[in-house]
Amino acid sequence: MKLSARNVVPGKVVAIQKGATTAHVRIEIAGGQVLTSSITNEAVDELGLTVGGPAYAVIKASDVLVAVD
């Protein structure tokens, strides 16, 4: 698989919470950090995602927001 995105982070699925149409998938990456992605239930099924299984978090953003207190 080749992607134009440069931020591809390997990890392990630690939770999948399906809703009516959308699922929240939590992926644990290096250092114990957890990323959460909202994807369709159909995508979860097509990708064969399972808790404990490997997955990549692919991050492609057109905007980066910066904030301070």
Automatic annotation (TrEMBL):
<dbReference type="InterPro" id="IPR004606">
    <property type="entry name" value="Mop_domain"/>
</dbReference>
<keyword id="KW-0500">Molybdenum</keyword>
<dbReference type="InterPro" id="IPR008995">
    <property type="entry name" value="Mo/tungstate-bd_C_term_dom"/>
</dbReference>
<protein>
    <submittedName>
        <fullName>Molybdopterin-binding protein</fullName>
    </submittedName>
</protein>
<dbReference type="InterPro" id="IPR005116">
    <property type="entry name" value="Transp-assoc_OB_typ1"/>
</dbReference>
<dbReference type="Pfam" id="PF03459">
    <property type="entry name" value="TOBE"/>
</dbReference>
<feature type="domain" description="Mop">
    <location>
        <begin position="2"/>
        <end position="68"/>
    </location>
</feature>
